[in-house]
Amino acid sequence: MSSSLDQLKVQHEQLRLEKRAIDRETEDTRTKTIEDKRAAEAEIEKLQLDLDSMKEETAELIQKNKSLEGKVVGLKEEHAEKKKKQEEDYDNQRRSKQKLQFQEAKLCTKKVNIEKKCDPVQVHKLQIEELKKEVEFNKNEREEVRKIYETEMNKLDNVMAKLKFQKKTWEKKLQAAREELLKLNANCINIRESSRKELYDKDLLLQRLVLDTNRCQKSIPELEASMAVLESMIKE
Description:
By secondary structure, the chain is mostly helical. It has helices at residues 2-116, 120-235.
């Protein structure tokens, strides 16, 4: 009798330990499921945010590219019109120059022939007076060209200075906007992660309660049935 009872106690303890080990493994698996699911969903959400951001940026770039494609066509057409006009102006100017150069050459030849018939001293005096006038004209022309250069370069320098200032301003605004975007994205991710963690932690407790409730619902009829068997054994 004692030997049989000891064997039953040993078997009972083995089954209790096996049941406890199975329950622990089940609970670990349930906890791991929740934790791994939380980590996977967080990674999925981050990937989705990155994907959405890439889609938005791609759509914006595509729209900009379309706009630039139209601008390129317009620039080509504008250049073709300017080039055509320039070619026409160049051809007209070339014809006019050739005509005047021919007339000038004829006059120079005629003048030289006349000078040969005049007193060389008087001719040189005349040439000196003419050169003085040309030198004075060239000086005035040089000064005028310098003024034009300074005026044009001052205009361009002012435009460049203004654009450089605007560029620096917009670089700062762009950098600030990018940093704000990163900050908002990170804040969005952090809020969702903290919210998800809070819900999952509570969900873990909830599932524990559900599990314990189910076990109680299962064990109560078993206990009642077991008690009935024990009571019948006592009566016997």
